[in-house]
Amino acid sequence: xxxxxxxxxxxxxxxxxxxxxxxxxxxxxxxxxxxxxxxxxxxxxxxxxxxxxxxxxxxxxxxxxxxxxxxxxxxxxxxxxxxxxxxxxxxxxxxxxxxxxxxxxxxxxxxxxxxxxxxxxxxxxxxxxxxxxxxxxxxxxxxxxxxxxxxxxxxxxxxxxxxxxxxxxxxxxxxxxxxxxxxxxxxxxxxxxxxxxxxxxxxxxxxxxxxxxxxxxxxxxxxxxxxxxxxxxxxxxxxxxxxxxxxxxxxxxxxxxxxxxxxxxxxxxxxxxxxxxxxxxxxxxxxxxxxxxxxxxxxxxxxxxxxxxxxxxxxxxxxxxxxxxxxxxxxxxxxxxxxxxxxxxxxxxxxxxxxxxxxxxxxxxxxxxxxxxxxxxxxxxxxxxx
Length: 386
What we know:
By secondary structure, this protein is of the alpha+beta class. The chain is built from 10 helices and 16 strands. The chain has helices at residues 23-30, 36-44, 78-86, 107-121, 156-168, 170-173, 210-224, 263-268, 312-326, 364-379, and strands at residues 15-21, 49-55, 58-66, 125-126, 132-133, 150-151, 177-186, 193-202, 230-233, 240-244, 247-252, 258-262, 298-307, 332-343, 346-355, 384-385. Strands 4-7-8-12-11-10-9 form a 7-stranded mixed β-sheet, sandwiched between helices. A 4-stranded antiparallel β-sheet has the order 14-15-13-16. Strand 14 and strand 15 form a beta hairpin. Helix 1 (23-30) crosses helix 3 and helix 9 packs across helix 10 (364-379). It is elongated.
């Protein structure tokens, strides 16, 4: 049986894409001394058609790319092809030049960090609230929860909830007022943008209302960043619209004690920074973290009436001994002296003690036993518990 071998059919190569390359750029990227002729020979081995032409008075190579090389789309894809055929072992290891000049400041980053630093120095804490809410302009197709199926349109609602939550825990935090801010993305119908929201809530009675504090902060912040802003005040002068160049960018006290503004629009009107020097960007400070309890806390107040000759340290020492004797040392999360007054040669020291367990929810009965020990220790010194 005689077998007849048929010649294999090799399809003709088609060329559907072409672009030009500057041989000098290829040599610069690879840091090798290769001639145009050698480069042409290497590329032709990859079925790339090469033609030397002039482009804007410069000698370049026009490459026609075979249709089976869809990965070659521009001159940036060519150095690797040349290097593979040339031989990686022939390419010397060189250190790229170092640009020692200072980086050009990025405007949005600069002013965001500047505002963040200003607020932190004023005693504000930064918070991060949920980007998903129960209402908004853009619905999430597959939401994680019924109250988180829209993209938020503002930061005010999240800040308001955070103020309320932190106010409930003010005794545990040891705060007389809550001061927070957030910088984050919002998604109104006009489109995505960066917003800044600042909130203040008085926990204890204060001569200055939260809305007045926000108004003062609004004026101070705009002055510090040197924004040419106009304020259209409300009838009661509690806040107002903030506008720049006739465009409204925010409002103070739309929700009492909260200010929110369009940070992108504000930054756009500010001058470009020349350096980062005034931001004092340095190494991050060492931060130590400690475990916190997930269980609710209980607050107890005790006022001890003593002769003026008795110091505040002696009073707390007696209270602390009562706590120690009751075995509740680990349950005291915080204590503070919140009131003092003198009368008829005596002094009243009022303490607030916050109890919290790391392991369970405390009961009133447990804490009442601790307070009985404290009262017994105080009365044992012939002091009066008020």
